[in-house]
Amino acid sequence: QALFLLEGGPRISEDDGAYCRARRRLPLSEFPKALAATAQAAEQAVTPLTWLQGRPVKVVDGSSLTLPDTPANRAAYPPVEASPRHFPMLRLVVLFSVASGAILALAQGNLFASELSLLGLLLGQLAPADIVVGDRGFGNFVILAVLRGLGIDFLGRSVRRVDGRRRVRRLGQQDWLVVWKKGAAPSLWLSLAQWAGLPAQLTVRVVRGRCFQKGFRVRQVTLVTTLLDAELYTAQELLQASLRRWRLEMCLDDLKTTLQMEMLRSHSPAMVQKELYARLLGHNLVRWTMGQAAREH
Q1: What sign for the dihedral angle of Cα 114, 116, 118, 121?
Q2: C-alpha distances in angstroms, 14 versus 17, 19, 24, 49, 145?
Q3: What is the dihedral of CA 33, 34, 36, 42, to 10 degrees?
Q4: Residue 65 φ then ψ, to 5°
Q5: CA distances from 253 to 27, 94, 166, 194, 257 (A)
Q6: Is the whole model's pTM more than 0.85, yes or no?
Q7: CA angle 242, 247, 253 (to 5 degrees)
Q8: Fewer CB within 10 Å, N or C, the chain?
Q9: What is the DSSP annotation of 212-239?
Q10: Is 61 helix (H, G, I), strand (E, B) or coil?
């Protein structure tokens, strides 16, 4: 409508019925392709990163959305408690680009699918030499070992208690190498063969320090990473990368509000997924426009 109005084209009806019918006919398989294409365009519009050796940095984050209470949605996305007072819920995990802020890919499931298993569905979207930055829910032995097997490094916080007195080597102040050992119980989202193929132990780097940025609370954080070279990847760079991850985590929360995603409107699982992709496509197009403006001006 806006394009035709600017170009003097034919007037298009403002009724939304035709739009809804067209969206229903559009195959769901086209939406991930569109998300990847818009993310690639946004990446090409921005200046590449210079820190962390210029390697691609991608943030993984998860969230959940509420859906209309229809029989189809309830069957595909059952609430935690089978009660009319509880609505169907969708869990999603996305990959952000730190350089452009665009969403590269997403995986979705119901609340009974863990964020770790959804990240497993996105491993094909990662490439060797990528650096994945995540919150403490992803900072565990299994994720680090799987990513290292793919030539991908991880940086983030961890729920695992880190004792600096048991370090293998000291790299600097509050900067150590430690050894993590594989647990006895197999991971729930890996097959037994995949679990058996993981190494028995893994050397990781632990960096502890303060992240400061105006407008943010000063807080001490403990990071774990597979970036072991303290000369190539300084502790300060790692702490700043963690701060950038927090900004993108707030971005996903912001998108739920500004794009009215706290509760979607579609009444069937296929349309729910299309509606979700459509909103994230809008975000990527905004990031593409911002990248163009930043480069030109």
Answers
A1: negative
A2: 9, 9, 18, 43, 53
A3: 160
A4: -130, 150
A5: 28, 12, 37, 33, 7
A6: yes
A7: 130
A8: C
A9: --TTS--EEEEEEES---TTTS-HHHHH
A10: strand
Give the number of residues written for the chain: 297
DSSP letter, residue 178: E
Three-class secondary structure of residue 186 per DSSP = coil
Let me know if 87 is exposed, middle or buried by CB neighbors in 10 A (0-12, 13-18, 19+): middle
Could you give phi then psi for residue 77, rounded to 5 degrees?
Answer: -130, 70
The answer to whether residues 43 and 107 touch, using CB atoms and an 8 Å cutoff, is no
pLDDT (0 to 100) of residue 283: 95
**Cα distances (Å, whole numbers) of residue 99 to 19, 55, 254, 290:** 33, 10, 18, 12
Instruction: Supply angle C-alpha 32, 34, 38, rounded to 5.
Output: 120
Query: Alpha-carbon dihedral of residues 189, 192, 198, 199, nearest 10 degrees?
Result: 130
pLDDT at residue 162, as a whole number: 72
pLDDT at residue number 70 = 95
Q: How far apart are CA 198 and CA 191, in angstroms?
A: 11
Q: Yes or no: say if 260 and 282 are a contact pair by the CB < 8 Å rule.
A: no
CB of 1 closer than 8 Å to CB of 12: yes
Closest CA to 119 of 146, 159, 88: 146
Q: How high is the pLDDT of residue 126?
A: 96
Q: Give the closest residue to 275 by CA, choosing from 90, 101, 40.
A: 90
- pLDDT, averaged per 10 consecutive residues of the chain (297 residues), comes to 90 83 91 97 92 93 93 93 80 94 95 93 95 92 95 90 75 90 89 92 91 63 93 92 77 86 92 95 95 91
